[in-house]
Amino acid sequence: MTAAVPVPAHPGDADVSRPLPAERVIWLTAAEALARLVEGEVRIEGQFVHGSNDTFLGCLDGAEGGPSLHVVYKPRRGEQPLWDFPGGTLARRELAAFVLSEALGWSLAPPTVLRRGPLGGGMVQLFIPHDPALHFLALPDPDRAAVGRLAVFDVIANNADRKSGHVLIDPTGRLWAIDHGLTFHVAPKLRTVIWDAAGDPLPVDVTDDVRRVAAALADRHSDLRRAMLGLLTADEVGATIHRAKAILKAGRLPEPDPNVRHIPWPPV
Description:
9 strands, globular
């Protein structure tokens, strides 16, 4: 289950345009965060304008004087049609990425749920306070182990859109991964700016986690398989198993293929 997640200690600290000092952050457990995400009404406070799909900054009021939570809300009706991904499925793919991250035990994606909001059903995800200027390519010395796990995660999830701005660093220096709508396609579509670890051998602990998840996905009686089949097609789950087994067989992260587009546009 997700490690503790940071939220602003005071409503006035939730300005998304500036960094938040660590001393102005409080922590929620994963269970607390997920429980809060499904409660109360989502109030829209703003819109993120640098994306192709409608994405809003929302707020969930705290109960009994507790902290308000800022969330990212992506209604299904705001998803733009794509030629290669079925319509109305991006919110479910976002949740599937969270489920995969949790199953691996890596806690890369913020707590995420599917629920209704003011513009209809969609994805609601805990907003992670961060410095908007510190996206992945601007990080001076990111944790190599964390970067390696994120690269493996993107291979298994077949992430077609790992832009630099889709990697955040919270006030404690921990990396978080967001924007997972373009994932889990059956055809190879890996496009990412994270090629730093290309060719690196998989650490033993990473190998163990991937092997465990691949086995659970293939087990018809596992909770993980049932959860993923509620979000993806059977073919997409099968392709996820295949990618997990392929990286285990290779024993290392893949190199970029020079014959296909392997970096998203724009990269940030």
